[in-house]
Amino acid sequence: MASAMLKPQKKWFVFFILLVIAAGFRVALAHWFPNDAPDDGRIYAQIARNTLEQHVYSHETAPPYDPSYIRLPGYPLFLSAVYSIFGHTNNGAVRIAQALIDTGTCALVALLAFYWQPDEKRKQVTAIAALALAAVCPFTTIYAVTILTEVPTNFFVVAMCLAATLAFRNGFTTEDTEGSLKNRNDFKRALFWWSIAGLLGGVAVLLRPDCGLFVAAIGFTLVITTIWSAVAARTATGAQASSLAMSTTARKFDVRKRGRLRSSGRFALPPHAKISRVFVAGAVFSIAFALALTPWTIRN
After folding, report:
1. What are residue 137's phi and psi, to 5 degrees?
2. How far apart are CA 167 and CA 196, in angstroms?
3. What distance in Å separates the CA atoms of residue 135 and residue 128, rounded to the nearest whole number?
């Protein structure tokens, strides 16, 4: 029993150690190997400084600082937040912040792997393996040392995928009655996570416009899930009706079996109810996504 209790603690310890390694690796690179070469980084930094010093969103280096829209505002506003605390030219602080954000992305990757693993016994091992791979992955780590959008973009995209995963788990795995309290609570939680996913997707697009592809992929998955669920429900209903018809032709019908069949048909969510829930979920996701983009849209 004692060894069984220690196993979860060991896994949490391994998880913590991997996070420390991921953070240390990224902070070391950010400190010892800074990279200011990309021209995009200079533009982002200039916009951030103009936002703080001239109170205008512009990439100009001299007056009159005409307003600009050549870059989306997500990353310059992130730089402005860091500059306002640590100094207007302190890119070292930006790199440290990005190193910590990228470490958070590693943790989100582990959570995503945990939820996507169907085998309950292997969930923790899968999460640890995913964290280990993310912690030492050089292809994402190298962006922590640059003044570019990739690090916060990765964080918000993975967070959006995690929120969508939780929404799917709460909204499409229950088999309760349509009016049951548990079903309603699950659907409310699903709508909450759909709203979070939409907001995160909007913020990701404000960092990089091509993140709209990830948002579209989640919407496409929602549609495919709806079609699959409707087809599966219709197939199950047809098979159940055939079984009931064959049973009624028999001379002696098992009353208890008939009651079970009728109960299962009466208490399952009908296809139209599932479709309506999906429409509501899609609307919440889309509205939250649009809300995140509204200020920038109005500004332009």
Report:
1. -70, 120
2. 9
3. 10
What's the pLDDT tens digit per position in 126-173? 999 999 999 999 999 999 999 999 999 999 999 999 999 999 988 765
Give me 92's structure tokens. 């070292």
Ramachandran region, residue 55 (left: φ > 0; alpha: ψ -120 to 50; beta: rest) = left
Strand partners, 35: 146
| Phi-psi sector, 87: left (phi>0), alpha (psi -120 to 50), beta | left
d(C-alpha 106, C-alpha 15), whole Å: 11
Which long-range contacts (C-beta less than 8 Å, at least 24 apart) are formed by 149-152? 149/44, 149/74, 149/75, 149/207, 149/208, 151/98, 151/101, 151/102, 151/105, 152/74, 152/75, 152/78, 152/98, 152/101, 152/207
> What pTM was estimated for this model as a whole?
0.83
Instruction: Quick: pLDDT tens for 233-273.
Output: 566 555 554 555 455 554 444 544 444 444 444 344 455 56
Q: Are 183 and 128 in contact (CB under 8 A)?
A: no
According to DSSP, residue 35 is labeled B
Put residue 268 in one of left, alpha, beta given phi > 0 → left and psi -120 to 50 → alpha: beta
Helix/strand/coil for 300 = coil
DSSP state at residue 210: G
Of 242, 225, 210, 235, the closest CA to residue 281 belongs to 225
Given a cut of 50, whether residue 2 has pLDDT beyond it is no
Which among 42, 126, 116, 108 has a CA at the least distance from the CA of 79? 42
